[in-house]
Amino acid sequence: MNLARAKMECGCILPKDQELELLKRRRMIELMKRMQRREVEKGRKTEDPKKILSRILVDRAWEVLKAAESQYPEDTRRIEEGLAHLVSTGKLKDPVRGEHLLWLFRRLGMKVRLETHIRVLEHGKLKTIGEKLKGE
Length: 136
Fold this sequence. Notes:
By secondary structure, the protein is mainly α. It folds into two domains: 2-43; 49-134, Helicase, Ruva Protein, domain 3. The chain contains seven helices and two strands; from the N terminus they run H-H-H-H-H-H-E-E-H. The protein has helices spanning 2-10, 16-46, 49-53, 61-71, 73-89, 98-107, 129-134; strands at residues 119-122, 125-128. Strands 1-2 form a two-stranded antiparallel ribbon. Helix 4 (61-71) crosses helix 5 and helix 4 (61-71) runs parallel beside helix 6. The longest helix is centred in the first third of the chain and has 31 residues, at 16-46. The protein is rod-shaped, with a radius of gyration of 31 Å. The protein starts with a helix and ends with a helix.
């Protein structure tokens, strides 16, 4: 018994109460770290992907994005989140124009259809092809 008491005094063996307290502290520290990680992840997720994308989308990119959302809502949401992640991490810095975004969607197998209008400028007025042919 004296040997056990000597080991406890030198710190080699801890009494059961101290062991339990040490385990509780370690567990508490681990839980606190997990909570901090979750809060950081929530902070990233709470920022609206469209707000992040507004930094890089230019020209007709918004039109392409809206068309894709109406045709492929779930897939477009995931792509938005992925692009927003790339922007927020700094991996995507250059402006993204409509044709780049359209190429990306088509490359991913999503045939996004855009509304197309052909207009003719005649005497300072924009006319559709139909109006031009009617002679209005």
